[in-house]
Amino acid sequence: xxxxxxxxxxQSPTRPDGMQGFVTDWSSxxxxxxxxxxxxxxxxxxxxxxxxxxSCFLLSYMTVRMSTxxxxxxxxEVFALSFGGEPxxxxxxxxxxxxxxxxxxxxxxAVMFGYKKDRRTTAILMFVTALFGASFVGMQAFEWTKLIVxxxxxxxxxxxxxxxxxxxxxxxxxxxxxxxxxxxxFLFIIARKVWxxxxxxxxxxxxxxxxxxxxxxxxxxxxxxxxxLVWVFIFALFYLW
Amino acid sequence: MVDAVQDQDDxxxxxxxxxxxLYHPKSWLTKYVFSxxxxxxxxxxxxxxxAIGLVALVLSWMMRLQLxxxxxxxxxxxxxxxxxxxxxxxxxxxxxxxxxxxxxFGNYLIPLMVGARDMVFxxxxxxxxxxxxxxxxxLLASFFVPGGPTGAGWTLYPPQAILPGTPGSExxxxxxxxxxxxxxxxxxxxxxxxxxxxxxxxxxxMTLMRLPLTIWGIFMATVLALLAFPALFVGAVMMTFDSLLxxxxxxxxxxxxxxxxxxxxGSPILFQHLFWFFGHPEVYIVALPAFGIVSDLISVHxxxxxxxxxxMVWAIVIIGALSFIVWAHHMYVSGxxxxxxxxxxxxxxxxxxxxxxxxxxxxxxxxxxNIQLTVPMLFAIGFIVTFVNGGITGxxxxxxxxxxxxxxxxxxVAHFHMVMGVAPIMVVFGAIYHWFPKMTGRLMNVPMGQxxxxxxxxxxxxxxxxxxxxxxxxxPRRYYAMLDTGFIPESAQDLNAFVTxxxxxxxxxxxxxxxxxxxxxxxxxxSGPNPWRATSLEWQTPQTPPGHGNFxxxxxxxxxxxxxxxxxxxxxxxxxxxxxxxxxxxDYDNSGLSHSAAQAAE
Lengths: 241, 602
Prior knowledge:
The complex is a heterodimer of chains A (about 240) and B (about 600).
Chain A: H1 18-26, H2 38-67, H3 75-78, E1 80-83, E2 86-89, H4 91-115, H5 119-150, H6 163-196, H7 215-240
Antiparallel strand pairs in A: 1-2
Chain B: H1 28-33, H2 38-68, H3 78-114, H4 122-141, H5 172-200, H6 213-244, E1 255-256, E2 259-260, H7 268-301, H8 309-322, H9 338-350, H10 352-366, H11 375-398, H12 400-406, H13 410-440, H14 446-473, H15 491-523, H16 595-601
Antiparallel strand pairs in B: 1-2
Helix pairs in contact in B: 2-3, 2-4, 2-15, 3-5, 3-6, 3-7, 3-13, 4-5, 5-6, 6-7, 6-8, 7-10, 7-11, 7-13, 8-10, 10-11, 11-13, 11-14, 13-14, 14-15
């Protein structure tokens, strides 16, 4: 039993384009997605499953927003911040969204430099992405604190109107923030591995005893972009509706 | 027999991927306990699932004792009865059947049958089992908290599930929801492995259309589970908050004992939609692996290729897809818009088409087959009969006008026990008798197996046929006692007593089955590597039971589908998937080899 590199043989198999190529791949042996590493395939399928989770959360939010008889608070007033006495609607959330979208940009660059095996730049870009993510979570904590302490919103009650506003808001942004936090933790872990050069000398994993590989940077990137994409939907359905 | 030589190919493309890197255990602990080997994980899953299943079996005896002989057993109070019902249902559906088919058979058979050395991510696969075990332990813990486990019925409908008055509303319901969430997390880890292994880690020559139907069934069921469990996860999270934090996702304005509760504005129907968006695919999460496995059992033991392989595959895929747009047929009486009922009745009845295709194909596989009435074959035939029976009553319940009077009667209980209780369990038994020799190297005792089959099969009918009748009489389900229910004749009670007696007899037969497993594991007759003379890859391993990495130094190369039985130009009546075409006339029969000889030959 030989021990060698994981999945990608580096050869791109010659095959027809378009629909015919799709049929050729799926009727072939060994792999349905040619030259797609296992980790990447697994992440895509996980994200599909996670999409269903977020869809269920958002559909439930829409349902309870319709089923409640108490008026729904006006988002542009609830999510306004005052600078110099003048309330600016949605300013905090605009900054948070900007930061998160920017972090997708640095992540995409990290993936590119990862495939060029540029150890230093990849690691720095991943650290920057992680810091963007951490600051997003920090601002979310600030937003929660403001809602809970200053405005008295609770999961079970809400002085501004429907109780479901607080319940769904804390649940959905909380679940999203949990995703971002997990992402930040793994970004730091993988960035550290890149920085140490684990993937250049193919160091084996502590638990899996498999050789490390720059592919993981792209897999991480998929997750991160997904978390950003979900945020766009939460932003639209929660803050703009 | 022109189509028997279907799909045979001398040319096999070269390997596209390098060998899988395996984790090599260094100690007893990493080899047998925290094992990353899918075969060990499979056995861990199976034993845990069967152990918790035994708890559910005992609970069903308790329920039947109460129904058969009311006011006889002082230790069964009304609260206990509801708790027994709830836990019996939830354990059997999720913690036994889902875990056993996907975690047990999935883990054991997928790498072996697709020709992989292990799952693609063995470490994640190991975590999957340990989180499943945690879920089971949390579920068991709910028996020991104040108030006991939840008695809300396995559907856990709010508002009653979390309100005082329902047994287990103190803590049991929260533990149940937490356990479900854990189960889903653990299952997702395993499920991703199963899907990616089937899609991306097959051996050379193994195309999707050469996969044994077992793998197709498990694969499609896993896809369904990965897409359906999220709805249950979300429902569980939201109901936990309703219960612990006092949110009102599912709770409308409600008053209890003349007091207005703090809840208001939520939607109880929302939970039903979330639950059944999971709950209906769940039926097929259990049924599709059973469909797949039974196809292979019938083909192997009738010594004949499966009839209409491609149609069987497409039927599995179509049933899987349709199962996501039928969920509200569980909700005809929930108060939802009647037009929805029309839509969901239509989609529900359409499922009968691919399902009927499968049944006809099983029967046509048996037609003119060289049927060996081995124990697995007995169970496979038993499955066809019970499944058709349960499917036909499904047509009754799928129609809105017929469902409304039958809803919440014993007829519903009889229907779903027949179609997703008895039928899949028949396949589980058949599959255990079939693959036991591969897992242990020994055959199970045949007379005991035959006895087990006949008691279980005849017993299942003796139990559930009367329940259909009781349902027509209007006997409601989930009732602790009938007392003075005028419209139900007194003779119904005699029937209930009869059912209870049969339940205890069938239960005893399952103890014999466990005894058979235990004894055969130690003293059973040596089976050799391929006792059923089957073609699929798991029977062609150099060691029995398969060793670390499954296939010895080189992976098998696949030349044909898994149903090459009775080829006219071959020496034996079966041709293994990995037998090179130029060796058809040589002596390749490995079924007679003894266990030790096979090891020596390696």
